[in-house]
Amino acid sequence: MTQTIDEQGPESDGTLRLQPYVSDTTSDGQPSSTSLLSFDILSDSNPGIISSQIINGVLGFETIGTDSEGQTTLTIRACDTDMECSDQTVLININPINDAPVADMSPFEGLRLKAGEETSLDLDSLVSDVDNLDSEVTVIVSSPDEAGGAQYNRQTGMLKLKFNEVGDKNIVIKVVDTYSSNEYVATVEVYDSDEFTIAMSPIEEGFMIVEMSNVYIGQTPYINMYLSDDAPVFSSLSVRWQTCSNEGVCDGLWFYDLDMTQSASGWEGELDIPNAADPTKSSRPYGYDYGDYFYLMIDGVDSLNNNYKTPRAVDPLYKWTVTQDMPAPSQMDDQMIEQHVENLNSKIDNLKEQISANPDADNTELELELIDTEFELELACLDARVVCTKDDTSGTSIDDSNSDYNPTLIAGIVIAIIIVALLGGMFLLRGRETEDVQGFKWADTTLPARDAVANSMYGGTQQIFQQPIQNSQYAPNYQQPIQTPQYAQPAPPLNIPQLQAHRGPPLPPGGLPAGWSMDQWEYYGQQYLDRLQG
Q1: What is the DSSP string of 25-57?
Q2: How far apart are CA 373 and CA 345, in angstroms?
Q3: Which pick of 92, 168, 183, 381 has the fewest CB atoms within 10 Å?
Q4: Residue 59 bridge partners (DSSP)
């Protein structure tokens, strides 16, 4: 018995029902049903070309692989219930069928190509044909997404890939022999550059770690940039900073290349971004306003000539926004307060220059800003770490050695004089406990109006004490004099008025100036009002 199948593997198999070819009888010679027989494969003369098995009396077989050829003989045994058996052979012949050539496409999986750069693959080594010689195989290559992006050289067997446009590109490879063919499609990614990642803190991941400090309103930030341990070895890095206002107006721009000899230590300094219209000037000469922001982009090339770029987006990925007020001078570190004083001096000089350049113009806003800045400088100069001269504080130096007077000292002297006078009056009253209340009189020489010290340049209380006493909540409440005292009455206790909550000159209509405290207004407020009126 002979069976024939093609060499197409699972696509070409064969079956053979065995029962029609077998008969059986009982022990007395009567015919017996073949359904009671069992079948087994005893041997396979060429087991490497087919696989076979018997299920319910049906022999099934198929070629192993897609290029099996030749023939094999299967020996099959049939047994009845009495275990009487008989053997038979089946010849299976494999009809040779031409196999199409194939190409190994694994080198194209995950392939990424840089735009404009050429890459070559040995395509000839990836093509094979089991039925034909390599010289009989034809390879056809095309790139439908970008003409000329993929080119195959039949003489060398090399496939050259070069795409100028960024994106996913399809490469079609067709292999053909005399009888059949196979076609494959590979997709490669064409990119302009790899992403340059930035970490805004040491705990984040990125090629460049950027630490920012002094990001306060009215200040110029300070930056510290250094490469992470996982960063590629870069041969060049180009930096771009841009500054924008809260309204989105970007008026600051700064391009520069990093000195790669400092790669190990990093790069740090003040972030003074130039003005986009005039690079010789700063975009924020007096520091940042509330809501201003600045962002960073970096392009680089590594030692393998791979390009890296920070992604360009409508909303930048790496952005810092200024929202915090500057801390009090006492809370600043040495570097910060030094920069703060330097910025204030620079701002004062610039404001004066603007005012003097246009004396006939309405410079009210500039003058008010100048006053605020000068007093802000005076407050900073109160810190012991700052050495300010008279010129630094624009004629209002708080340095004791250069001041004509010290407001704190003056206030202390005046208060001390008043307390001494009051205490003296109390002792005087106690010394006259035995005298009649009606006999108590102020000595003319002890009146505060006659006190030369209290009315000196440090006091100036004469006009206050010469004013007639008005009925008020602070007027002493004396009892009616006793007509016939039986004993001396003690002097009633003086009702000393408490110090008022508000001291110093009257507040301006808008209340305390921005950033002022009541203590500052008490000591410096009159100077502020004088400057406003002057």
Answers
A1: E-TTS-EE-GGG-EEEEEEESSTTTEEEEEETT
A2: 9
A3: 168
A4: 16, 54
